[in-house]
UniProtKB/TrEMBL annotation:
<feature type="binding site">
    <location>
        <position position="58"/>
    </location>
    <ligand>
        <name>Mg(2+) 1</name>
    </ligand>
</feature>
<keyword id="KW-0067">ATP-binding</keyword>
<feature type="binding site">
    <location>
        <position position="238"/>
    </location>
    <ligand>
        <name>Mg(2+) 3</name>
    </ligand>
</feature>
<keyword id="KW-0460">Magnesium</keyword>
<feature type="binding site">
    <location>
        <position position="87"/>
    </location>
    <ligand>
        <name>Mg(2+) 4</name>
    </ligand>
</feature>
<dbReference type="InterPro" id="IPR016188">
    <property type="entry name" value="PurM-like_N"/>
</dbReference>
<dbReference type="InterPro" id="IPR010918">
    <property type="entry name" value="PurM-like_C_dom"/>
</dbReference>
<dbReference type="Pfam" id="PF02769">
    <property type="entry name" value="AIRS_C"/>
</dbReference>
<keyword id="KW-0808">Transferase</keyword>
<feature type="binding site">
    <location>
        <position position="56"/>
    </location>
    <ligand>
        <name>Mg(2+) 4</name>
    </ligand>
</feature>
<keyword id="KW-0547">Nucleotide-binding</keyword>
<keyword id="KW-0479">Metal-binding</keyword>
<protein>
    <recommendedName>
        <fullName>Thiamine-monophosphate kinase</fullName>
        <ecNumber>2.7.4.16</ecNumber>
    </recommendedName>
</protein>
<dbReference type="InterPro" id="IPR006283">
    <property type="entry name" value="ThiL-like"/>
</dbReference>
<comment type="pathway">
    <text>Cofactor biosynthesis; thiamine diphosphate biosynthesis; thiamine diphosphate from thiamine phosphate: step 1/1.</text>
</comment>
<feature type="binding site">
    <location>
        <position position="57"/>
    </location>
    <ligand>
        <name>Mg(2+) 1</name>
    </ligand>
</feature>
<dbReference type="GO" id="GO:0009229">
    <property type="term" value="P:thiamine diphosphate biosynthetic process"/>
</dbReference>
Length: 349
């Protein structure tokens, strides 16, 4: 619905593979000390000296993970980097490099890839990571994107999913459910647009949640904040699939249980009002929505004074000795077992 029909369309075939790669990547100049060689050879060369290297990859497929009808390509480029940096930060590491691989069908002109790379470049600049390589190829249908993010951390700073202990506090950053609701709004507008192409969507009343969906930010700031507060989480994970599935991961890997308090789950007022409009339960949306890219972590209780009152951090529960038993404690004090209704990429929709 957002496609501009007046834009120029240079067919990719007219570029040649190497011309295309050069054209798209010529602006990428490494700034990280650890980047010895970036784009331009058979492989990048990195040097992390006395740090551990942290690596994570995500694959994004058109029609499964994104819909170009309402996802502008610039945002897609930005988001592709964010979802990967989020995984690096979830290890309490600093993101330093990314590689970006794309496969596109011939329905994509050069201008589309330029737009995508604008988003990539913007994310790389803001987050201080070098684009050090990638691959470019064709696909028979649609667009595929694979980003690999690389980061560094001192060995003693790395935080795994597996370190949570009984009595630890469970903490989440930011607020939850917005990205899922933003998607619901965009899909609703897209359905209307399909019937009436003259329909001009008014997304203004939903700006926060639409932005949460289209332009998420990875929580680099939280890694800096934790360092400043001198708090090392005992376990950590990023909230990409919804709170319930992430909590279950922490419980399983750490061999503990959890009590999560429904009334503590942080929700933006726009999330609450949009849930009312769509007839959705806001707790369910926060638990199962996904794509919020917040961080979920546990800390020892004695660290509580250090994080108390910080507007970025909300204590939502605590860990229990009851191995792998995670419960939502509802507003009326019922204990509801948390199930992985998070987000299952193989579920039929
Ligand atoms: P090879 O044939 O060895 O795979 P390429 O010609 O594909 O090499 O790549 C040449 C250089 O350009 C390499 O440094 C590679 O990492 C980089 N590169 C290729 N495609 C992309 C891309 N889409 N984004 C960023 N860098 C890329
Ligand atoms: Mg290649």
């Amino acid at each position: 619905m957002l496609e501009d029909k007046n834009k120029e369309r240079t067919p990719l075939e007219s570029m040649g593979e190497f011309g295309l790669i050069d054209h798209l990547t010529k602006g990428f100049k490494p700034v990280q000390e650890s980047t010895v060689k970036g784009i331009g050879d058979d492989a990048a060369v990195l040097d992390f000296k006395d740090h551990k290297t942290v690596v994570s990859t995500d694959l994004l497929v058109e029609g499964v993970h994104f819909n170009l009808a309402y996802m502008p390509l610039k945002h897609l480029g930005y988001k592709s980097i964010m979802v990967n940096l989020s995984d690096i930060y979830a290890m309490n590491a600093e993101a330093t490099q990314v590689t970006v691989s794309i496969a596109v069908s011939n329905r994509f002109p050069l201008e589309a890839l330029e737009e995508f790379y604008e988003g990539v470049a913007m994310a790389a600049k803001i987050y201080g990571v070098d684009v050090v390589g990638g691959d470019t190829t064709s696909s028979t249908k649609g667009m595929l994107i694979s980003v690999t993010a690389i980061g560094k951390a001192r060995e003693e700073d790395v935080v795994y999913r597996s370190g949570a202990k009984e009595h630890d506090l469970l903490v989440v950053t930011g607020d939850l459910g917005g990205a899922y609701l933003g998607l619901q709004v965009l899909e609703r507008e897209n359905e209307v647009f399909k019937v009436n192409p003259n329909h001009q969507p008014d997304l203004e009343p939903y700006s926060y949640i639409v932005e949460r969906q289209l332009k998420p930010e990875a929580r680099k700031d939280i890694i800096a904040l934790l360092k400043e507060l001198e708090v090392k989480p005992t376990s950590m994970i990023d909230v990409s699939d919804g709170l319930s599935s992430e909590i279950l991961h922490l419980c399983k890997e750490s061999g503990v249980g959890c009590h999560l308090y429904e009334d503590k789950i942080p929700l933006d007022p726009m999330v609450i009002s949009t849930c009312e409009e769509f007839g959705l339960d806001s707790t369910l949306v926060a638990m199962s929505g996904g794509e919020d890219y917040e961080l979920l972590f546990t800390i020892d209780q004695k660290e509580f004074p250090k994080i108390k009152g910080n507007p970025n951090l909300t204590v939502v529960g605590h860990m229990t000795a009851d191995k792998e038993a995670a419960y939502l404690i509802s507003r009326n004090d019922a204990q509801i077992p948390i199930t992985a209704q998070g987000w299952n990429s193989f579920a039929k929709t």
